[in-house]
Amino acid sequence: MASETGQRPKQCFECRFEASADDGAWETTTHPSLGTITQCPECGSTDIHSID
C-alpha cells in the first residue's frame, strides 16, 4: 500500500523488517562509491527493497 506521499513501503531482505519509506524508521549509512544508502535499523543490512 502506498503512503500519502506516494512512496512505497520498504522491506529488508535479511530480517524482513518493514516500514514506510518516509516514516523515519530507516537509518542511513555512507558507502565510499555509492554515497548515502538506506540501512535496516534492526539488523544493519543495506539490502533493502520497495514492496507493494
What does this structure look like?
With 52 residues, the protein is mostly beta strands. It has one domain (9-50). Helices cover 0% and strands 35% of the residues. The protein is built from no helices and 5 strands. The protein has strands at residues 10-12, 18-19, 27-31, 35-39, 48-50. The strands form 2 sheets. A 3-stranded antiparallel beta sheet has the order 2-1-5, with no helix packed on it. The protein has a two-stranded antiparallel ribbon with strand order 3-4. It is globular and about 30 Å long.
How would you sum up this structure in a few lines?
0% of the residues lie in helices and 35% in strands.
Residue ranges: pLDDT <50 for 5 or more in a row?
Answer: none
The whole-angstrom Rg is 11 Å
Oligomer: single chain
Based on helices, strands and strand pairing, what is the structural class?
Answer: mainly beta
Placed side by side, the strands forming the largest sheet appear as 2-1-5
Any idea how many domains?
1
Helical content band: under 10%
Count every beta strand, where a strand is a DSSP E run of 2 or more residues.
5
In percent terms, what proportion of residues is strand? 25-35%
Task: Give the overall form.
Answer: globular
Largest sheet: 3 strands, antiparallel
Average pLDDT metric = 89
Distance between the termini: 6 Å
Instruction: Name the helix and strand elements from N-terminus to C-terminus, one letter apiece.
Output: EEEEE
Total DSSP helices:
0
Protein name: Small CPxCG-related zinc finger protein
